[in-house]
Amino acid sequence: MAPSSRATLSIDLDALAHNYHVIAAEAAGAETAPVVKADGYGLGAAPVARRLWAEGARTFFVARLEEGEALRAAIAQRSARIIVLDGFVPGSGPRLAAAALTPVLNSLDQVAAASQFARAASVALPCVLQVDTGMNRQGLGRDQAAALTQSDRLAGLEIELVMSHLGSGAIPDHVRNTQQLAAFQAVRALFPQARASLAASAGAFLGPDYRFDLVRPGISLFGGGPQERPDPRLRAVARLEAPILDIRHVGAGELIGYGTTIAAEQATRVALVGAGYADGVIRATRRGGQAWAAGALRRLYIVDMDLTVVDLGDGLARPGDMVELLGPHALLDDQAQAAGSIAHECLVRLSNRARRLYLGAEAA
Q1: What is the pLDDT of residues 235-276, one digit of tens each?
Q2: Which candidate in 37, 210, 277, 301 is catalytic?
Q3: How far is CA 56 from CA 46, 59, 70, 173, 301, in A?
Q4: How many domains are contained in the chain?
Q5: What CATH number does residue 337 fall under?
Q6: Same domain, 252 and 355
Q7: In this structure, what CATH number is given to the domain that contains residue 52?
Q8: Which end of the chain is more exposed for a tag (fewer CB within 10 A), N or C?
Q9: Active-site annotation holds for 37
Q10: Active site residue 258
Q11: Which of 20, 41, 210, 258 is catalytic?
């Protein structure tokens, strides 16, 4: 391959498969249904879903209708269930039906729209019902869900799954978890014929009480720890590397980059690395982030649009050597913490400017 200053984003599908089986073993007895929204957390929903299908996944969650349509086209030869979290938005019925997508009903308005569509089409429409148990985000109120069972508002609808979402699952001993669990158990009892799902990545590791019939892992499939810190059971899926473009000497106290706040504490050598926030490296990572260079983790000084400056110290390196900005050494959760963010954002911000390389077998 000809020399290039372009960054490379490697996506390890074998690591993805490993993480899937770790989560499936942790949630034994429940179906493990991957969340591949936002184009597979920025890593490519199609190759991610094809590999996870090969590993045994049969249900997938996306956020948007368009994501569901694209995923159905990508895995058209597979009889996967694809569930759309945004639900039954106005006018979406024909497109949901055409792509065999299952909507999550998040409000009474969505319930009414879905029922009207199903009755007009004389079909039984498979649906998922989401109930808010204390996160105060999407979902029907618990009283609203109870009232549905005493009316004909569900006419034409087959409620296959009842779900909710934990707001504090990454903090195992938080009282909110047990409160939401109790609320969800009460809701589940209203729909005894439906399966139940409460846990996403974090909840899947909270123990058997939280598993129910289906868990919905997202970030932990891609290497993010369920408690928002590195978890040795999980492997890094994304690895962002970029070449050293130049090496410079910086004197003690000399300023680096824009502004007047970042200076070298002592005389050192810095590497100018050919990737920046245009490639998806979060600018705020410079606050405490590290890169793997010259065989060790080394401090980031600045992240600009096209360049990241890394403190080499006495490390042996030369222009053309690759620096890992995210991956098995520069761990996802550590970089997220340094940026004051979460692993999810670090992944979905990875841009298409970096050359993408998929490693490991992908089901055709």
Answers
A1: 999 999 999 999 999 999 999 999 888 999 999 999 999 999
A2: 37
A3: 15, 9, 20, 31, 43
A4: 2
A5: 2.40.37.10
A6: yes
A7: 3.20.20.10
A8: N
A9: yes
A10: yes
A11: 258
